[in-house]
Amino acid sequence: MDLLSDIEKQLKKTSAQGFLIALSGGLDSTVLLSLFAKLCQKQPHLQTLSARAIHIHHGLSPNAESWVQHCQDLCDQFQIPLIIERVQVDKTNGIEAGAREARYQAIKKHLQTQEMLVTAHHLNDQTETFFLALKRGSGLQGLGAMQQQSVLFGMPILRPLLGFTRSQLEDYAQKENLNWITDESNEDNRYDRNFLRNEILPKLRERWAHFDLVVQRSAQHCFEQQQLINDLLSEIFAQHCQIKNQFKLCQFRQYSPAKQTALLRMWLAENQLEMPSKRQLTQLINDVVLAREDANPQFQFVNKVIRRYQDCLYLTKPFSDLTKYCLKLEQNTLSLPDDLGNLTVQENEHNLIFYWQDYSITLDKTDLPISIRFGYSGKVKHHPKRPREDIKKIWQELSVPPWERNRIPLIFYGNELKSAVGFFRVLKSS
């Protein structure tokens, strides 16, 4: 099979008007870049489709700067524009997971409308991905591994080399006299993927020459079976998942365990999350779905948190504790912590108007110092015909989940609570 003609056929099947090539500088992505350069020369109209490359500088290797220069030299040679993006890797859930998250989030910032991300994953990578899913105890969704075209982190992605082995890419690179870098961390067998690549899979390939093709076939069977399950459950799933990051639990507890886990996997896949193991799914169901009615359970999964409130699951990021914050409002714009955006204030003759996200609240002017805090316990009066009530009851009536209550800016005049921006104004007690 010819690499160039095969990729050319794949590009014609896409609706993309541009391609963003993920370039690490290693063998696989260097071959991919070379092939795209050839296609641009063969079909000049592809140049108008804005074939570009992006290199992510993770800062994890002492050689990272030289890799940047290598990628720049390659792109200059092939006359393909290069974007260089430096990222910070969150190692909380492991270096591999953190680097992957940082890499794709950085790429997402640069991917243009009608543009498709292109990666250099090949057949050997597919085998590794299948085995890693097998190690996790993943279901069909995880064992389906990678597809030539899919969506990842909300981005359309093309993997045109998925049908080729690494040895085929090496043959092409040697024929074209290509130079590539070698990441020294690839030899570190503490990482699961490297352990498989360096220790386990070579022995399997030595015994069974077509092992990767057989694994690819198995992965495809798993993918097709999962697609069939999704089709059969699509109407029921739509009843449970009407908002992407929420999953309604009505009738859910009456389903069989197999149906429950299938629906939850569909929900996690809808949110572009790695497929959990059977143990993780069982823990999620037991600890969160089946927790007592008055509990506010949560389950940490990769870099997300699954929470339950009013018979619904919510998928959120981990949140910082903001209850110790007390921010003085001394200018018209105040930057809020933990990615909550800005709070701004406008002044007219008699009032101050506070704006936050899509909310606003109008309060009387004051000579007292104004501060923004998060979290409050006690009684307040927010309805003219009702007495002072515990703020917890007010939040419940407004259907504000517990984890959101301490993230809503509270406006204080001096030490007196005046408003929760966008939700209620505190009235004077009669």
Explain how this protein is built.
The chain is α+β, with helices and mostly antiparallel strands and 430 residues long. It has 13 helices and 21 strands. It has a six-stranded mixed β-sheet with strand order 3-2-1-4-6-5, sandwiched between helices. It has a five-stranded antiparallel β-sheet with strand order 11-16-19-20-21, with no helix packed on it. Strands 7-10-9-8 form a four-stranded antiparallel β-sheet, with helices on one face. Strand 20 and strand 21 form a beta hairpin. Helix 1 (3-12) crosses helix 2 (27-42) and helix 5 (123-136) crosses helix 8. The model has no long low-confidence stretch (mean pLDDT 91).
Task: Give a quick precis of the structure.
This protein is α+β, with helices and mostly antiparallel strands and 430 residues long. It has helices at 3-12, 27-42, 64-78, 95-110, 123-136, 140-143, 166-175, 192-207, 211-240, 257-270, 278-289, 391-397, 402-405, and strands at 18-22, 52-57, 82-86, 115-118, 149-152, 155-158, 246-248, 298-301, 304-308, 312-316, 326-328, 333-335, 342-347, 351-356, 359-364, 370-373, 379-380, 389-390, 410-413, 416-420, 424-425.
